[in-house]
Amino acid sequence: MNHNSTAKKAVGLALTLGAVGVGALLTARARATKPSPDDAPDYTGRHASGEMDVEGCTVTIGKPRQELYDHWRDFQNLPKFMENLLEVRPVEGQDKANWRIRAPAGHMVDVVTEVAEDRKSEVIAWRSVEGSEIETTGRVTFTDAPGSRGTRVSLIIGYKPPAGAMGRIFAKAFRREPQIQSRHDLKRFKMLMETGEIATSARTKDQTRKAKMEEEA
Amino acid sequence: MRALTWQGHQDVRVETVDDPEIINPRDAILKITSTAICGSDLHLYDGVIPGVLPGDILGHEFMGEVVETGPGSTLQKGQRVIVPFPIACGQCFHCTIEQFSCCENSNPVEKQDLTAPLYGHPLTGIFGYSHLAGGYSGGQAEYVRVPFSDVGPVVVPDHLTDDQVLFLTDILPTGWQAAEYAEIGPDDTVAVWGCGPVGLFAVQSAIAMGAAKVIAIDHYPHRLELAKKLGAEIVNFRESNVLQALMEMSGGLGVDAVIDAVGMEAHGFAADNLADAVKQKVGIGADRAHVLRQAILACRKGGRVSIPGVYGGLADKFPTGALMEKALKVRTGQTHVHKYTKMLLEKIEKGELDTTFLISHHLPLEDAAEGYRNFHDKQDEWTKVILRPGMERGTARAGQAQETQQA
Ligand SMILES: NC(=O)c1ccc[n+]([C@@H]2O[C@H](COP(=O)([O-])OP(=O)(O)OC[C@H]3O[C@@H](n4cnc5c(N)ncnc54)[C@H](O)[C@@H]3O)[C@@H](O)[C@H]2O)c1
Ligand SMILES: [Zn+2]
Ligand SMILES: [Zn+2]
Fold first, then answer.
1. Which terminal residue of chain B, N or C, has fewer Cβ atoms less than 10 Å from its own Cβ?
2. Where does the record place a coiled coil (chain A) (predicted)?
């Protein structure tokens, strides 16, 4: 993994987190956007709907809803599977958390988030508070899979490339990254919950992605 | 440690590389005692499976002694184990229904994007089998890191030699699964293309499952001879018209089941194969599907097509019409090795299956490159090569009677 592609990944999350006020878009289905509505999730649409990009991804995890919800709801667990999230700390005295994110070129960005929606074993949505360096929102839902197959977990994010000259450059170069990043994060979550670890083909500790990212930071 | 590394097209070398380490809790490290070269490795050697990088360690058929374990491993130091070639977590949906080679959790997330666009789903992790299958270091080395070591490895009893149990890692279960997929009944005639290790074990399995007649097809006299010794009738495609021969030998009905144990690098000068070979050379992901086409044509109406042979890309002139109009049933895939290891180990112990008859050479790991060259260029005599890290350089031994010296 060379420096370039790591930087690219980092930009990915920065963009993911660059979402703005898309709460309304993040419902399971935005009925109004397809001229001839069907049952497929809105983010699978062939045509862009509105000014915001909405990305979504679903995995089935062989664990009960509650266990998955509980793990995700404890935001301090998120850095275990969200590669560019370095640390999540509760903000004292408030129901908020400080997310420290790896940004391009060895930078670090702090974002304060608050919970926008929270229903036990069903849904968690979050967004950055006003005045954050970058703005972010995301929504994860947990529904029973058929029979004994566990839980379907959907992560939906909406984003608008961050503002400013840098933002524009990143957005142009890495348009698809947020989708890839969120899919990867979700699959790592599945690995962690099902197997207790995240697969790596590294032969030595120095070759793991984590080690390489730290080395480059 | 020393390890066999891929360097480029038909260029492999034994080099000194970093030793593996325990990384995840369920990992174990093995000290390799025996490791084989597989027909699948030849696809990498020939560069027809992409995604291998210079320096990658090959090898997915290996066994050895446990020398280190992570806290989540159930193995103990000193145990002697064989390791299935697909890497499986044991806990995902596919693993729980015994589709181990379809495990969702063994190919690292960032590598999954290499194959998902081509196949609709990512490949499962496989040892030493390109970055498409995860980029794991293989076992043609002195040591190997084995993930999910609580699921795959099987402890083997001391009274069985390496030669007897090594093929539990791949080709023995692969031949068995191929025959199982042929759904053999007592009156059935089964045709097997390819008398390499996979084809030979498919022949042996088909006979063990009670087929009335098994017909083996190849062009190498010695390999055909091995099939004949197992009890098969043989057809040399350089001497006989295969389709006509199979129709006649199955009483004009067509064979009840066909097994393609050749895969994407079919030999021969049939027109379709030559066209495929050109496309494969220019690197557009073309499979040489000559054998599969022939097998489909040879299969009787309503019969079964079993495909253990590996394909990786796309095939032209695929006989969709014959497939549909003849009502054929197709089964294929990388072998769900984990599903078969214990059952086949029992059969080896009881002496019901001979696993050593096809071994032609033992080489020191140091001479692995020579092993590749000969297994590739002199297929007739070099039927199966076993590499041993401990063996001294230049001490190649032919034949299977190497049972005496177990470490
Ligand atoms: N499904 C699995 O899990 C799995 C596992 C192991 C190997 N494989 C695959 O099985 C195949 C065979 O493996 P192997 O180790 O026996 O390889 P191998 O190269 O030793 O044997 C292949 C044999 O096929 C013969 N052959 C070539 N063209 C032929 C033709 N037109 N008609 C009849 N025979 C022909 C060759 O002469 C050779 O003897 C390979 O594609 C390999 O990748 C699959
Ligand atoms: Zn193999
Ligand atoms: Zn699995």
1. C
2. none
Residue B248 has pLDDT above 90, yes or no: yes
Q: Which ligand is nearest to the CA of B308?
A: 1
Q: Which residues of chain B are within 8 Å of residue A155 when distances are taken between CB atoms?
A: none
Assigned domain for B303 exists: yes
Number of domains within chain B: 2
Spell out the long-range contacts of B87-90 with Cβ–Cβ below 8 A and sequence spacing 24 or more. Answer: B87/B124, B87/B125, B87/B126, B87/B127, B87/B134, B87/B136, B87/B147, B87/B148, B87/B152, B88/B124, B88/B148, B88/B151, B88/B152, B88/B338, B89/A191, B89/A194, B89/A195, B89/A199, B89/B148, B89/B151, B90/A195, B90/B148, B90/B150, B90/B151
**pLDDT in the model for residue A128:** 84
Locate tokens 């080679």: which residue?
B101
Domain span at B207: 176-332
Check if the interface score ipTM surpasses 0.90: yes
Domain harbouring B59, CATH code: 3.90.180.10
Contact A184 B109 (CB under 8 A): yes
The pTM assigned to this predicted structure is 0.91
In a domain, B161, yes or no: yes
Higher-confidence residue: A52 or B119?
B119
pLDDT score at A77 = 96
Check CB contact under 8 Å for A195 and B91.
yes
Give per-residue pLDDT as tens, A80-89: 999 888 999 9
Q: Which of B198, B203, B224, when mutated, tests ligand 1's pocket best, judged by the most ligand atoms within 8 Å of its CB?
A: B198
The response to whether residue B175 sits with its C-beta less than 6 Å from ligand 1 reads no
| Mean pLDDT across B101-121 | 95
Q: Does B145 touch chain A (CB under 8 A)?
A: yes
In whole angstroms, give the CA distance from residue A41 to residue A30: 8
Q: Is the CB of B360 under 6 A from ligand 1?
A: no
Can you list the domains of chain A with their CATH numbers?
Answer: 5-216 (3.30.530.20)
Is B406 inside a domain boundary? no
